[in-house]
TrEMBL record:
GO terms for molecular function: unfolded protein binding. GO terms for biological process: protein import into nucleus; ribosomal large subunit biogenesis. It holds the Pfam family TPR_SYO1. It comes from Homalodisca liturata. It comes from the Eukaryota. Residues 1-24 are annotated as: Disordered. This is SYO1-like TPR repeats domain-containing protein. InterPro entries: ARM-like (IPR011989), SYO1-like (IPR052616), TPR_SYO1 (IPR057990). Residues 37-294 form the SYO1-like TPR repeats domain. The lineage of its organism: Eukaryota, Metazoa, Ecdysozoa, Arthropoda, Hexapoda.
């Protein structure tokens, strides 16, 4: 797959950063778990989750068109979009720390995901106000990412209405020229792949999208986001046949040298992205070796 020296280089980089990586992880968990009981009680008492939920819907499309295209009300249109951004970011923060029942349970949260997706798809990147819409898409995809991760933690799998067309529409959002949107969509697609693991067609679509995302990305941290999601999707042994059908292992092998080279060049400039990138690079070779052996075993049966 790669030279022994390459593997030793990455391992050396990782051993020197264990303390930094562990500190980041522990800090992140501490921040989440450190939410005081008083704050939890206040969130429940004032039904903040429900209030945020009620603010998700935007103004009717015809009303937004009117106020956006009217010189006297364009400032109002921008304030509406700003409010929606705040709502999505608030939802992103809330969904991981409050009881899911405050949102109406898993099914209600999944319905919310569908609703937010519809709003995302209504945002036309060709229209004059797209700079503002780009911010809205970033906030909304961050909310979807957080909700799906929460649903995945409960092993929610009632996604029977997802079809290939839905995935294609999600993929379109992921090719917008906004790095954080691309990262959010990679995680969204990866989480859907995990939840849809019993559907070979959709899992292969997810796998191909994430592989293509890794192949086309110039930014190492975006490649790492897609790779991490890809390994999550195909970690389950039941995906071996699907991995074989999309040539997962050979395509990853072809990418390994370039990714390790970029890691050596950029490791000091990755900043906040370093923990994810370093973890992915540590896991990549073992994943290829393990999955490669399992896919090869399919040919002997």
């Amino acid at each position: 797959i790669s030279s022994q020296d390459d593997e030793m280089d990455v391992e050396s980089e990782e051993s020197g950063s264990d303390e930094e990586l562990n500190g980041w992880t522990e800090g992140d968990e501490t921040q989440l778990l450190g939410l005081s009981s008083e704050i939890h009680e206040a969130l429940e008492k004032h039904k903040l989750a429900k209030l945020v939920y009620m603010k998700i819907s935007s103004l009717p499309e015809n009303v937004m068109d009117i106020i956006t295209n009217c010189a006297q009300s364009i400032a109002l249109a921008k304030r509406v979009v700003r409010l929606q951004c705040c709502v999505y970011l608030c939802l992103n923060n809330l969904v991981s720390v409050v009881d899911m029942e405050q949102f109406g349970g898993p099914r209600a949260l999944y319905s919310l995901v569908r609703s937010i997706f519809k709003q995302c798809l209504c945002l036309n990147p060709q229209q004059p106000g797209f700079e503002c819409n780009a911010e809205l898409i970033e906030a909304s995809t961050a909310a979807i990412r957080a909700i799906l991760l929460r649903l995945a933690s409960f092993k929610f799998s009632d996604l029977g209405d997802i079809n290939p067309y839905d995935l294609e529409e999600i993929f379109k959002i992921g090719i917008l020229p906004e790095p954080r949107v691309q990262a959010n969509v990679a995680r969204i697609v990866g989480t859907l792949g995990v939840l849809l693991v019993s559907n070979p067609l959709l899992v292969k679509m997810v796998g191909n999208y994430l592989l293509e995302a890794v192949e086309r990305q110039q930014a190492l941290w975006l490649s790492a986001e897609a790779l991490d999601s890809l390994m999550d999707v195909f970690a389950d042994d039941c995906t071996d046949q699907m991995a074989a059908e999309i040539n997962l292992v050979p395509r990853l092998q072809a990418l390994t040298h370039r990714l390790k080279s970029k890691m050596r060049q950029e490791r000091k400039t990755l900043g906040e992205h370093y923990p994810v990138v370093s973890t992915v690079m540590t896991n990549l070779s073992p994943f290829i070796k393990y999955k490669g052996a399992r896919v090869a075993a399919l040919r002997t049966h």
